[in-house]
Amino acid sequence: MDLKEVMAINLRRLRHAKQMTQEELADRAGLSARYVGAIERADVSASVSVLGQIAEALNVEATVLIKRTAVHPHRSR
Questions:
Q1: What is the rounded distance in angstroms from the CA atom of residue 74 to the CA atom of residue 28?
Q2: HEC states along the chain?
Q3: Could you give the CA distance from residue 54 to residue 15 in angstroms, rounded to a whole number?
Q4: Which tens digit of pLDDT belongs to each residue from 41-58?
Q5: Are the C-beta atoms of residues 20 and 30 closer than 8 Å to each other?
Q6: Residue 76 burial (CB < 10 Å; 0-12/13-18/19+)?
């Protein structure tokens, strides 16, 4: 799994945990909802600046967005 996919998974998980829509996150981060969706689908790579904007909007450290976590092989998608 590349870093773009790791960020996509972490971003979606954190956004859901904070009960935010893509639109709300985009508004807080100063981004378009379409761009946030593309990051969550791992269609695009976010720049370091965008990573910082998203982290600030979610009130987390930027490293949380790119931290690899253990993969659960038995987990269904």
A1: 35
A2: CCHHHHHHHHHHHHHHHCCCCHHHHHHHHCCCHHHHHHHHCCCCCCCHHHHHHHHHHHCCCHHHHHCCCCCCCCCCC
A3: 10
A4: 999 999 999 999 999 999
A5: no
A6: exposed
Residues in CB range of 50: below 8 A, 6 or more apart = 29, 31, 35, 39
Per-residue pLDDT of the chain (77 residues; tens, 9 = 90+): 899 999 999 999 999 999 999 999 999 999 999 999 999 999 999 999 999 999 999 999 999 999 998 654 444 44
Query: Token pair 């945990």 is at which residue?
Result: 17
Asked if 59 and 1 touch (Cβ cutoff 8 Å), the reply is: no
pTM of the model: 0.85
State how far the Cα of 30 lies from the Cα of 61, in Å rounded to an integer.
17
